[in-house]
Structures are given as structure tokens and as C-alpha cells.
Amino acid sequence: MERGNVTTPFGRRAMTLGMLASQVVASEIDSHQPIDKWKLFRTACEAKAVIGVSDRALAVLNALLSFYPKVELTPGRGLVVFPSNTQLALRTHGMAGTTLRRHLAALVDAGLILRKDSPNGKRYARRDSKGSIGDAFGFDLSPLLARAQELQTAAAAIALARQEAQLARERLSLCRRDVTKLIDMLREADHSSNWQGIHDRYLHAVGALTRKPGLEEIEPILRELDGLRSETLNQLEILLNLQKLAANDSQNGRHIQSSHPDSSTESEPGLGNETAAVANAELQSRRSVGVPIGQRPAPSDNGRNTETGPSPQPSGKGAQAFPLVTVLRACPDIVDYGPGGEVRSWRDLMTAALVVRSMLNVSQGAHDEACRVLGPEVAATVMACILQRSTHIKSAGGYLRDLTRRALRQEFAAGPMIMALLRASPGDIALAS
Question: Per-residue confidence at 6, pLDDT binned at 50, 70, 90?
């Protein structure tokens, strides 16, 4: 930064180190790519918790951006807007003057704008003989442009944390539903069982939940509820096997109606049914080696599975077998969008994928659906592959939706995509250990 470019405030406002630091940051813009001002504003809104500004201050920033004549902010001169307080109040829906000045000061303190005061403190522009603006005094938007990458990374981290918390709350809701229904089933099937003790432990676990729990609060409760679900399933399976043994020993000749019309019916349960015999033998072998019964419940009399856990996932989730270093070797371009320009973990890759999603204009709905179907890690891997081949893809959002639909039909896996990129660029890249 050149020393002659320092701007000091007008009147009684004193120069502070924060103002000087903002001017230094604004003078060190290393990007020559223009950025859409409204997209950058939405990014600032998503990262407002990190920036430390209120929604009213962001409304004032929105009004300041509306005075910039172009859609894209371009590095260089001409990023100064000079509206009067009257015009600013109109574009902030009649905000009072004192409130307006307070939020302008908050934006300056947060390092999003700079004051470029004239000798008399007024805001105006000096034009040359051709009508072009030669010099302007008002509010400089250069700090907002200089911090674009920082704001994108912060917004991506916040979005990733919000997504992880939402997925954890969904898993908690499903687990609570499973445990309550299994306890009711155990109570109705065997009154002498320990269903009351399991129910009391369930109430104690969920009683500590707040109205909107965070990820740190959900994880230990979810582990405890998983244990209760496995314990309840074990007791139900033991009860089911006892009923089967009693039915086989009684030789009462009950008629079993087959669900397959072409198959012949048996006069006694367990005779001629090879599937049930194999399942029973597997169950006895698992008990002999001490494998917990709840991990794989045996089929019931009607051929249905008693386990209420999640259904099998699409084939795309198998791509997590690829280590992170292989994904980064196949898709080196994603590294530049990680926190601090590095990708050291799967979480860093997911954060970089959110930045790339916004850059490639992939909708939030398409990305959320991909995370739900493929899983967060595989969805981030697919976004890295799309970025690597972005010059050959016309619509990144449409391509991601198509891959998600194919994954639902079990026609897509990320593994071949990664291997194709490795064969296309076999060279290694320097990775952070």
C-alpha cells in the first residue's frame, strides 16, 4: 500500500488501526475477475454471524450497492458511491438518520466499506471534461471486493454446519420413532420383559434435549438411543425365536398361507422351507460366536424384516472407499477453494464444494438432494469432479440432478468418474499432509 493513499476521516472522528487495516486490505486486491455484487451481498448475508453485523446494517449495505451503476464489482478505481443521507434513507425504506449513521459506522468497523471523506465532509464526484468521474468522495466498496474469498469460505462453513445439524436432527427423529414403536411392541408381546426399564432410560435421554438442539447436543443422545434400539431388537428377536421353537415342538399342524401363489403350502411351519432353515442356522452360528443379535434380525413368519433401520443406500455411496488423497489427485482444482486454499480433510472438501456450488450456479435444492441420495462426502466428490470438467459441462446444476436421479436407480457410482479423471491427468499434485 502506498502511503499517499491513506484516507483519514473528516471532522472529530479519529483515525483508528481498524480503519488503517481495512484500507490495507482494500489496496491488496489480488483478483482481477469481476464479481456479481448481488451474489457477493447474499454471501455476506449468509456469513453475517462471522462478520458481526446485523440485518439492518446489511440493509444499508444493500442500499449502497444499489447506487453502484454496474452489476459486477471490478477491481480498480470507481468503487466509490456518494449518495446523500436522504437518498440512502429512501432506499432503506425510511430509516431514521441517526439509525442510518449508526449502521454505516458498523459497516466501516466490520471492514466491509471505507469512508473516503472530502475536504468539507460532503459526498460528491468530480467529473472531467468528457463527463467521466475523475475522483469521488463517499463510501468505498473495495473492502467488500477484497474479502470476497473470505466471505465465501465463511458462508460455506456456516452452510455446512447447518446441513450437518439438520441431518443429525433427522437421524434423531427417526431413531426416537424406532425406539418408541419397538418398546410398544415389546410391551404388548411380553409384559414380563424389561420394557419399562428401557422406556425410563429413553425418557431420561430425550428429557435433556432443548427445543432446537445443536450437533454437539445431538450426537451423545443419538449414540444412547442407538444402544436402546439394539437392546430392544435383541429382546424381540429372542422372543420371536422362542415362539418359533414352541410352534415347531407342538406339532399342531397349523396352516401357513404362502405369499407366493405358485408355491405349495406346508402343513407344518419350518418343514420344506429352506430359506427359514438357512436363516435359523445362521442365527444359531452368530450366537455361538457371540455376535450381537440386534445387528442382523432374523426374518419373521411373514417374510418381513423386523429391523426398522435405514434402507440400503444407492450404489453411489460406495465411492467413499476412495481415500481423500485419490480424490484430490483426480480433482486438483478443488484445492484452491478450501479453507485457506488447502483441503486437509473431508470436511474441508465439503466446505470447498459449497463454494464451488455457488460459483457454478448450482441451486441449493439440487445440492441438498445430492447430499441426501449420495451422502455429503460423495456429493462433495462429485462437485469436485464437475469443477474439474467444468469447461465441458454446459449446466453444472442439470448435470448434478441427472447424476442424482441415476444414483437413485443404482445406475451411477462416483468411482468410475474418479478413475476416468485419474487416467486423463495422471500427474501428481502437491498435497498437504
Answer: low
